[in-house]
UniProtKB/TrEMBL annotation:
Single Gene Ontology BP annotation: melanocyte differentiation
GO cellular component: a single term: melanosome
Protein name per Swiss-Prot or TrEMBL: MREG protein
Domain of life, source organism: Eukaryota
Signal peptide: none
Species per Swiss-Prot/TrEMBL record: Oriolus oriolus (Eurasian golden oriole)
Amino acid sequence: LCSNNNPYASFGATLARDEEQNLWSTPHDMTHTEADDDRVLYNMIVVRNQLDKDSEEWQKLNYDIYTLRQTRKEVRSRWKHILEDLGFQKEADSLLSVTKLSIISDSQNMSKARDILLKLLEETNIFPTSWELSERYLFVVDRLIALDAADEFFKMASATYPKRPGGDRADEGPRALQS
């Protein structure tokens, strides 16, 4: 029972490690895309795991990791909410899913998608102040352009998450995220 040859001995540890390293996709997703923001989070996790759990540095990194993950979930939730309001109830998750296999549908859409994404960042509250644009949402906007729904998405985002005067953001946490 205690043999080192047991292939299932570390199964629980493997699941926990995979969940810990899984930053955007579902666990064990082999098509997971690793973007710059994924590497930042992964590096934070690696550094934290090398520290003593009782240390102040570990607690700070653990808080930063939790905060970053919660921010990502909130942003994804906002996008999903708008997509569902636009009538994409069944398609929202697949529209938000970005993998290694994802491609830009039309290279001519790239600049338009980037413009819309920047406009969303500057003119709405869909992203928190500290948010660095993720390539992941460029793919989502490209899909919306292909579906002729990008302009409607922007209008809905502007109405649902309007930018507050003075640049204040209601969703800003107690500390700004550090990358």
